[in-house]
## 1
Amino acid sequence: MAKGTVVQKIIDEHFVYGDKEPGKPVAIKIDQTLTQDATGTMAYLELEAMKVPKVKTELSVSYVDHNMMQNGPENRNDHLYLQSVAAAKGVYFSPPGNGICHQVHLERFGVPGKTLLGSDSHTPTGGGIGMIAIGAGGLDVALAMAGEPFRLTYPKVIGVKLSGKLSPWCAAKDIILKLLDILSTKGNVGCIVEYFGDGVTTLSVPQRATVTNMGAELGVTTSVFPSDESTKAFLEAQNRGEQWVKMQADADAEYDQVIEIDLSTLQPLAACPSSPDNINSIKELGSADVAQVIIGSCTNSSFRDLALVATVLKGRKVNPKVTLAIAPSSRQVLEMLSRNGMLGDLIAAGARILETGCGPCIGQGQSPADDTVTLRTFNRNFAGRTGTRCDKAYLVSPETAVAAALTGKFTDPRELDIEYPNIEDVEKFLINDNFIIAPPEDGSNVEIVRKRTIGNPPENCELPDKVDGQVVIKVGDKITTDHIMPAGVHLKLRSNIPEYSKVVFECFTEEGKPSFAERASAVRDAGRHGIIVGRDSYGQGSSREHAAICPMFLGIKVVIAFAIERIHAANLINFGILPLIFADQADYDKVEQNDTIEIENARGQLSVGQPVKAQIIKPDGSKIEITLNHNMSQEDIDIVLAGGRLNCV
Ligand code: MIC
Ligand code: SF4
């Protein structure tokens, strides 16, 4: 078992109860929370439902960064609700235009050694500054704001030993792409990645944050860097030097597993369609045409990234066959670029400047044309996430992206006839906190603005004694929450569960056939229980609890798969859906869509570490006995029995 690691030090300091053994449940105190608008409305509605007058954390911040298209009144209705409920409950508010939650939190609020829980899966960005920063569903974040500890499995610590130094044109993005190549997106549940070794000191905080941000794609609980002199320099440059604390692993620290990466051997890499772990080197990808390049997202649009791109583009022109769009990650970044002239260089070179925010990363505009290649500096390329059904999205570093913007082809940036720009670490960032709104000391008289498009979280009933299930859908491996609950143009429905539920599993709807929502509602209305059958890594990706709430609303009671990803499994439990695992994977082949699955005495059968017996009933009446496992603790079981966490609190 690991010992003396940064991970253990921070967890020990925040330990509330549990078993400090890898794989066992523990609960930790949460110092800070963050929410974003697309998950935040539900989180605050849940907080209101818990009747919590004021948040009990050291700091909570509500960001608006995802849903900013404002096509129709829904988005703005959400923003007004979020701003007013933040003031009422003692939460800081970062309005639209201020930047992406993870970037702004790193700049203005993150503190080494603290714990941060965020209703967004890329909350681990905070690991770049030495925090234990974890993504979770909105309800878990609401509970943390209410002062409840956060439950997680005591982690195995994967130590990633970095040595050497990145060569010119190789980037922090290539480190995490390399690690995704090694570890893939599956099989890492319950682990935390900790970086150590001499190579760490060569990386600045924004570079480290790129690595911990995209570490979310590994399916680990989070990733963390030590807090050292670079961290101190970053905090000083953000005028927060006094918040620095040193966080280092002991000299004789031990990890559960060690992976070594020599930074000097890395080359420019890409995650190819349609998974962040489908890695190839740019060299191997040849010189196919690239039609679109987008530089942005919480992974790669820090000041350093955009300064690099601006320096490369200065005095040059984007290839006419390419559209280049740039979305700076924060107001700080945009304002600095505009004041130092780099914004002018980007515009003159032909870049289209987008609003600071998530934008195209979550399918809000800039969908690529059919059958064309798009290169993005983002962290996810799940099929269809761009808003184009059969998209060809590659994830690369800003270095590789700008090379393609110039040539119109996949280009190893080392082959550009350009000197690698030396971007110095910023000594003083431009600080302008005018747009971070502090809550009043006493928010009890603040009126909460709740327009007609803001619904309430739906209610669920207790788990029935007998699950009389029907398989509403059977899907394959690596089903992401983007498959389950598409975002993009539907994002504006996040506060309206009945409407949003209509597009659950939309990507699997065949023309002229009933949708998942129609089939599930028919099962529910017949007084039966819907079941989803998946395979490996079910529910990977985002923290969106809508991927549990909307199926719950449609009457889904059970999900059965080979493995269910951490945040999604927690969300299923929180909303009273039973997450079960095939004891014998061969049983997956025996079940088909529309089959009946019965679980007699479901309530009585649920017990820690004990399997659940069920039977598949085929249309001809034949029966197949199956055994299902689960990883639930007694607390989880109690929540599912009650029909979800809100029913318990
Ligand atoms: C994402 O990157 O998938 C999102 C959109 O930021 C999600 C949150 C959401 O669905 O609102 C995430 O990463 O958790
Ligand atoms: Fe926003 Fe994309 Fe980051 Fe998610 S991954 S928080 S959508 S920028």
## 2
Amino acid sequence: MCYNSESIMNTSYLTPEILISSKQLDAIVSRVADEILADCRSDTELLLLCVLKGAAMFTSDLAKKLDAPVMLDYIKVSSYGSGTKSSGVVRLEYEPAIRDFAGKRVVVVEDIVDTGRTARFLCEYLTDCGAADIKFCTLLDKPSRREVEFVPDYVGMTIPNKFVVGYGLDYNEHYRGLPYVGLLNN
Ligand code: 5GP
């Protein structure tokens, strides 16, 4: 299915305005990978824990740029209902397969930190699972929207309070495949 197909047009598909270009994303991912590596000890295994689905592209690109042995796993939570409104309640939908966190630095890789509820939930969940060395990496951060205190360890870019799509981020499951981050309906 392509973006200009009739079915997508029926969902009022709009072409997003580019906020972060593909070239800028590449530079951001390189810089974040360098920051993660600079903090990493050689005797510690790096486990990238991708938060599905939004962080899938970011995580893949990050893993390729990290010049170190990397383990990959996935977790899925939900807080958003349909569209652009968060329900405020975070639920675990899919647990990581790796359960042994001893000797590992877990880097949670998220698409965007908004209210901070999902990030807080994920860190508490991993602590309960026995992870002692947790870092939080987000492609995008909207600090002006925080409802619970949370400061990510690695931030790709701080953005204003706008709804963004692309590079993994969706609106009702559309737009995830865009190679850039764009603004929708702003
Ligand atoms: P939080 O729990 O911090 O409020 O929300 C985090 C989640 O909300 C993100 O992982 C993402 O799925 C969703 N989210 C927050 N802001 C945006 C946005 O601007 N665009 C999209 N597509 N998702 C967002």
## 3
Amino acid sequence: MAERAVLKVVKGMAASDGAGVRLTRILGTPEAQMFDPFLMLDYFDTAEASDYVGGFPDHPHRGFETVTYMLEGRMRHADNQGNAGVIETGGIQWMRAGKGLVHSEMPEQAEGRMSGFQLWVNLPRELKMSAPAYQEFDAPKIPVESRDGGASVKVVAGRTAQGTAGPVSGGAVDALYFDVTLPQGAVFEEPVATDRAAMLVVFDGAVRVGGQVVSALGAAFLGEGDTIKAESVGDWPARFLVLAGRPIREPVAWGGPFVMNSREEVQQAFEDFRAGRF
Ligand code: FE2
């Protein structure tokens, strides 16, 4: 076993998106622009309704997937092709925007705490113009693996080494998406080989990984090695995401809500959107 090294540790940055939703951007910042195949990661967590009520009114996407994981609260989504629903506490929505759609993501609550993550996962060239598709699962459909030593691993996508499989198929990049809770002093170990880009995103407590301490809200981008090892070193249990996927290794042209392979394709996306062709 070779413990995976840490390439870089970053701290999330305060940001605002949609109609004034306050969030912490962990990936997609000047310090951490992307981590192939992952483009962006936002975390939101607030009990102040004014931080989230504006939501994310109608906006387009093309060329990648958006993954919304609600830790607490409820979010309603609706697109221009007739798809709609509510992502409930603990639920996941893995949306392939593909060739494009226009959708809104609005809080289904006017008070109370709302927290969760939105991750953007890139698509390879051959899938950027594919038909939009949804995978949606409520909390009861997401298995939790309890390990010796006290770790619990909620498996959203992919399969753990112990065989627990998440409901979401990891799609084009063979993604792993685990939500791990680790008691003080406990160790989480999971074989994830270097051919998968992997990151650890700490949102409670602190962990030591690859000799470095990462506390909330920080992320560690992992390098060489074949096993992820993280020890909970904070004053209370740690909670973190393990995100991994196969790098796409293609040119990335990113313009607002469109992520394509070339500037021309991004230009085309803006034209198609303006002309109502989504
Ligand atoms: Fe969106």
## 4
Amino acid sequence: MTNLLIKEILALPPTSQDVTVRGWVRTKRETKNLVFIEVNDGSGFNGIQCTFDRGNTLVDALLAALAAVSTGSSVEIRGALVPSPASGQKVEVAASALRIIGDAPAETTGDIPAYPLQKKRHSLEFLREIAHLRPRTNTFGAVARVRSRLGFAVHQFFQERGFQYLTTPLITANDAEGAGAMFQVTTLDLAALAASGKAPDYSRDFFGKRAFLTVSGQLEAETYALALTRVYTFGPTFRAENSNTTRHLAEFWMIEPEAAFAHLEDNMALAEDFLKYLFNVALRDCAADLAFFDAHVEKGIIDTLKSVIDSKFVHMTYTDAVAELEKAAVGFEFKPYWGCDLQSEHERFLTEKLIKGPVILTDYPKEIKAFYMKMNDDDKTVRAMDVLVPRLGEIIGGSEREDNLARLERRLRELGLDASSYGWYLDLRRYGTAPHSGFGMGFERLVQYVTGMANIRDVIPYPRAVGQAEF
Ligand code: 4AD
Ligand code: MG
């Protein structure tokens, strides 16, 4: 690429060399002799100021273009890179040429409505309706850059530790979590079926049987972990849960490491290292974006991330956590009891009031966890772990896996799951079984935590949730 990005131009020394800036106009301000245009190309948080000096005999054509420039238009500006007298920026462009590449009318013109992102604060709800334009705002540009950097850091973390990247199928015939909240995939003509009043014949469906979008790549990841020892997936995941919350999406990206010869303790240590690594990368490489989130989105988020990096995650069993909740003199909406699924208010109490930091809960009742988790000797609890963080609750869920064939078969029977559809999964316990563990982290939960954004729908470009599939 021969074009320089604005972030590269901003890092150059101001030696009056000629530079060409391309991007979208954020603001235009005028004084008697000067016109200031702030251009942003999304390469970093900061745009660059381009100053036009009218006293400097600007040609008529340039004056006309200057008058026509409005917020949102794409422009190309050339000029000398000089030291900036303004605070908060080292350099600016003493502009001598301007070309409007694409207009963005400030008022409705013909059948083109006015550019909706005028210089004022817009609500996040409004911006969700124009999700195709919101990356041009400070907030969503910053979210996109943090998301990009964290996505790369996920690969760096695992690749540096001997984990192989594995892609697992998105279309699947099995329910990896045994929970049933799956989207069906079919090429059957549903309208014709409904009209005929006949039951669907899935043997005539595309795959010759019922198929779904995957809720997790874990089971396939286990097969590769018992061959390559350490693997991880990073891909889209689908959940048809009808949960209209600020931390659930119907389509999200999940990272699932899986390691052979690893027990729950190893898994917990990996999860803790992983989160700290990612927070460090964000603090180091996304400093300007995080400073913005700290100032305008979630005050103190930078200190929170630093304190998590410096902390040792507290480990606690589910049983001890429930005892603490029962002891707590807090009016919970849902009364906690041993065997209950922890509600968001419980998770918040544990992380924000009791521990005041991240906590890893382990050894949950088998009834509230998936079939594949390793049974403890008490036959009541399983080797599960959930990493809970303040504000958000569960950010990671995982476990040691049941590696004993007879116990796994018994568990499938108890849960009424059809062992015949898990044949290949059971083979792992028939041939060369080994202890193994893994976890899943929702990528959007991570981005939410790091940026402090309140709603998960604002940390993925085009959110899919109940009743929402625009763009
Ligand atoms: O706890 P979950 O359901 O665990 C699994 O899917 C396991 N197969 C993971 C494993 O052991 N390999 O989901 C894991 C994580 C959660 O902790 C949460 O961060 C995220 O995925 N998650 C969601 N994120 C956004 N929207 C949803 N609907 C989510 N459901 C789970
Ligand atoms: Mg979970």
